[in-house]
Amino acid sequence: MRRLYLQKERMKDKVTREFQEFWIRTADKVRAYMFCACRNRADAEDLAQDCYLRALRAWGQFDGRASRQAWLFGIARRTRVDWFRRRKREGVALNPENMVQLKKVESKKTSDNKIEKIWEIVRGLNYEQSEVIHLRFAAGLDYAQIAHTLGIPIGTVRSRLHRGLKAIKENVGEWENGP
Amino acid sequence: MDRESIERLAIDSAAGQLNEDAEALLKEYLAEHSEANKWFLDIRDIYGKTQAAFDVKTAFTKQSTGKKPFLKLNWLPVARWAAVVIFAAFIGVTAGRWSKSPTLEPNPQRITASQGPATEQPSFDLESIGESFWREKAVAMLTSPSSRIQKDYVTGPKLWEKYRQFIKEKNYE
Question: Are A77 and A151 in contact (CB under 8 A)?
Answer without folding.
Answer: no
